[in-house]
Amino acid sequence: MTDCILERQPAQTDLFTQFLTALHADGMERVVPGRERSPECPRAGTGPIRVGACELHHGDAAGILPTLPAGSVDLIVTSPPYNIGKSYETRTPLTHYVAFIEQIIGECHRLLGPHGAMSWQVGNYVHKGEVIPIDSLIIPIFRSLGMKVRNRVVWSFGHGLHCSKRLSGRHETIVWATKSDDYTFDLDAIRVPQKYPGKRYYKGPRKGELSGNPKGKNPGDVWDISNVKHNHPEKLDHPCQFPEELIDRLVLSLTATDDVVLDPFAGSGTVGAVCNRLGRKSILVEREEKYVRMATRRLAGHAV
């Protein structure tokens, strides 16, 4: 999330392997021969399992996405993997990161139906104290595919890393782009309370009428939603966990009941959990077995 730093290991066989090997080189759990696996956890490469209305794949996004049928998804909600505020001597060049993300976005675009959309949540790339907003690199990829950016939502949160030589980062962005001009957007589903509910026009032809929409106001493009820290009620053992409130807004406004939502970097399964609760179908892809097990139990309603 905020202030991401991308690391690398030399002499990997390809860009995707190089990037993900570096990304997960910080002590995350590995599969050890002979270790007992959760009976609910799908083995990598053995096909998905279904938990409620969720289809959960264990594997790399670059390998799984090409196996899914074109035009089968209505919305993609994700946050691509990057590390959080850690310093390493070697880091993945920004050009490698962009090439990796461009590969994934291209597959996601193929999977979207004609009325589909993407909501791509990103933070910053930080190198030697210089901050580069990743959304400024993602938007040209969307446009090169013919997609239209409808909003750049600022997700504001109150807690994060503390910086000593610049202002501490307290926001990230969500780029919402659509495949065509005919897309789903249900504003009423995400309206928030008016600042002055019941306020009425005091003069003119509409005197006495409510001055605001009785269903609430447009939430705007700056969302003040707490991130998931150690004391958050939703907190699981995942370093970059989505708050459900954030996903609620995206799913409610950008899909209809029974639509299909894809998260190619599913982590702890927040997108799937929200979709199960809101009556949407979901497809989750996650590389790390630790998080696949976590998401499986979460989606099944078990303690995690």
What key attributes describe this structure?
transferase, MeTrfase_CN4_CS, nine-stranded mixed β-sheet, 304 residues, disordered N terminus, alpha/beta, 7 helices, two-stranded antiparallel sheet, Rossmann fold, DNA_methylase_N4/N6, RM_Methyltransferase
What can you see in these coordinates?
This protein is of the alpha/beta class and 304 residues long. Among the domains are: 4-10 and 70-161 and 168-182 and 221-262, Vaccinia Virus protein VP39 (Rossmann fold, 3-Layer(aba) Sandwich), CATH 3.40.50; 185-219, no CATH class. It has 7 helices and 13 strands. It has helices spanning 15-23, 61-64, 94-111, 135-144, 244-254, 270-278, 289-299, and strands at residues 4-5, 49-51, 54-58, 73-78, 83-84, 112-122, 124-127, 130-133, 148-156, 171-178, 222-224, 260-263, 281-286. The strands form 3 sheets. The chain has a 9-stranded mixed sheet, with helices on both faces. Strands 1-5 form a two-stranded antiparallel ribbon. Strands 7-8 form a two-stranded antiparallel sheet. A hairpin with a 2-residue loop joins strand 7 and strand 8 (130-133). Helix 3 (94-111) packs across helix 4 (135-144). The longest helix is centred in the middle third of the chain and has 18 residues, at 94-111. The model is unreliable at 1-39, 83-90 and 230-235 (pLDDT under 50).
Secondary-structure blueprint:
Elements lengths: L3 E2 L9 H9 L25 E3 L2 E5 L2 H4 L8 E6 L4 E2 L9 H18 E11 L1 E4 L2 E4 L1 H10 L3 E9 L14 E8 L43 E3 L19 H11 L5 E4 L6 H9 L2 E6 L2 H11 L5
Parallel strand pairs: 3-13, 4-6, 4-12, 9-11, 12-13
Antiparallel strand pairs: 1-5, 2-3, 6-10, 7-8, 9-10
Helix pairs in contact: 3-4, 5-6
